[in-house]
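Proteins fold reproducibly. Look at a sample protein:
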Amino acid sequence: MLYNFFGKNKSTFISIDKSRSLSKLFIMVVVKKEGIVLEKRALGFEWDGVLNPGVISYGDFIHIFYRAVAKHNYSSIGYAKFISPLEIAERMDVPVLFPQFDYEEHGVEDARIVKINDIFYLTYCAFDGVNALGALATSSDLITWEKHGIIVPQMMFDEFKRLAETKGKLNEKYYRYNEHERIRERKGKKVLVWDKNVVFFPRKINGKLHFLHRIKPDIQIVSINDISELTVEFWQNYLLQFKDNIVLAPKYKHEISYIGAGCPPIETDAGWLIIYHGVHDTVKGYVYTACVALFDLENPQKEIARLPYPLFQPELTWEIKGEVNNVCFPSGAIIQADTLYIYYGGADSCIGCASVSLSELLAELQLNLK
């Protein structure tokens, strides 16, 4: 059984382990809600909110690339520089990435960022007003960015289904979330399968680039030598092996509707720490929570452990009420000493931060091995 006790700014999860003793309580993971670190300003490009930041520690600063939403849901990526996990030093008054091409004409959304060798990889969701698809931009200095376009498959549901069901029928949720009520065209554009939440691993594994992506309801993985491989033919062959590429699927009640990649994987001695979002449907709508799993260091397709409860969930006013209610959407994290700081969108309106002991979290994961 799982109980959740809330203090002023902390969540303490306590469980009763029936296999040992009905009366013995075990403290699990203590999460401190550090509060709001970025809010919208009276600037046109972030008039309706700031949320879902990509975060990286580099040099003497923490660099935050956040989604900024203008009126009518047009998004771009803003930039802020922090001198400590919670202390801002500088914030730009104009976006650093913004819609420039047809495939992103309605929004550049939800950045994630890693550094691999000497190159920064910033992935984002490109929204054209109909389709939401994963795209990539790279930089050598965090200032000048080169856009590489959409890097996920661009296909309608019928083609996706035909290829992905080669080895057997898909989970029925793939129909529910991706068939788009069999609408084939909207606003003069083909309606495609949405593939977003693209997140790169921060180093090559066995000489290859790896990234997570999400076609609802599961999280999938890709392994390539170079991004130039991501052609139409690559994705067709990938989808023929689609079921083999699913690395994380909904399992527990708090994530039962669907899941999606969150922060870039964090390398630890115990494995790749994966912070993702889990979603479950309630009478008040979907609830987004921050969840944690552990993957094998040299075989990132292998799940080692997973917390059977959310690491944290909407509980504060600004997480419960906003542009989209009941949302904690983790998208960036850094480590300082033994503290893991997780940055997340709160109710699609502002950016919050939560902290947790990394060693405590890894110890808890070891008690929940797959």
Remarks:
- DSSP finds five helices and 25 strands in the chain.
- Residues 1-9, 12-27 have pLDDT under 50 and may be disordered.
- The first strand starts at residue 2 and ends at 6.
- The helical segments are 157-164, 172-178, 232-240, 317-320, 358-366.
